[in-house]
Q: What sequence folds into this?
């Protein structure tokens, strides 16, 4: 088994959950709130005015426990 961990912007949580629910390889997944701190570049398309003001980007950690053979197709779908 492998644990696939992705960090995604919170704006795409629902779309990602909908996509993952369609995959037979995914029996379940977990979202956890995290805060992305670091140098923020104004050209970042995910950076909102709110992110600039508060100083961090609202992100989610996504964990999916998969069989080794299922990791590549699930990652391809997530991309």
A:
């Amino acid at each position: 088994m492998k644990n696939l961990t992705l960090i995604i912007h919170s704006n795409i949580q629902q779309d990602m959950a909908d996509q993952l629910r369609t995959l037979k390889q995914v029996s379940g997944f977990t979202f956890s709130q995290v805060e992305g701190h670091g140098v923020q570049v104004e050209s970042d398309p995910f950076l909102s005015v709110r992110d600039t003001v508060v100083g961090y980007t609202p992100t989610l950690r996504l964990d999916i426990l998969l069989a080794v053979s299922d990791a590549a197709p699930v990652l391809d779908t997530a991309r």
Remarks:
- The first strand starts at residue 2 and ends at 9.
- The first helix runs from residue 13 to 21.
- The CA atoms of residues 8 and 16 lie 9 Å apart.
